[in-house]
Specification:
alpha/beta; Spore Coat Polysaccharide Biosynthesis Protein SpsA, Chain A; 7-stranded mixed beta sheet; two-stranded antiparallel ribbon; 7 helices; 9 strands
Length: 238
Amino acid sequence: MIYAGILAAGIGTRMHRQDMPKQFLPLGEKPILIHTLEQFIVNQKIEKILIIVPDEWKLYAEDMLLQYDFMGKEYVVISGGVNKTESIGTSVDYIDEMWQIKENDILIAHDAIRPFITQRLIDEHIETVKKYGAANTAMVTNDAILVSKNGTLLDEVPNHQHLYAEQTPQSYSLVKLKEFLKKIKDRGVPLHNENELPRLWLKEKYEMRLVRGEYFNMKIINPYDLEVAEALLKERSA
């Protein structure tokens, strides 16, 4: 079974909107979340979709989703955690409880606020996880990356050739992910303290392969990003 986990549990303070999380804001004529979901709905390899939202917005999301056509694809709305890592952990627990994780099951976890994900990315993630067990999305950075521990003093300028910008999806064999989560929970590692699950994954000596991202697989986190996304959407619709 191939599951898509749409990570929509953030509140989005950088959008400067107090009334609504950014994933529910309109992009063109539909919410950002719906644009993202549509890419997973049309992919025939995706069998079930989990939409992970803030607990206080769960009823709103369920009502909103009733207005859209899922083409018969099964979906469920669940409450997420305080960060991406905890929300993925919650998704694994839900899948195991409801359907029981099986040997070839895969979870593709994707930011709800990256609505321009391509079918190529989804398909390549599926194939990479089948071969290697885990995958993350990465792009070569055009700018040099600077490291500063206090925000004022330059501490390090890493080799540009070895640096990549992370996108999503990040995808996992659910058997391996369940095993990994049990290990770190048994050691008392709190998921809410680590926003980057791949960092914990590597610490536990699990392998993760990179899938080439797309420049337009952008993350909408502030008003400027939303303007750029509107322009990109209009260009694609023309």
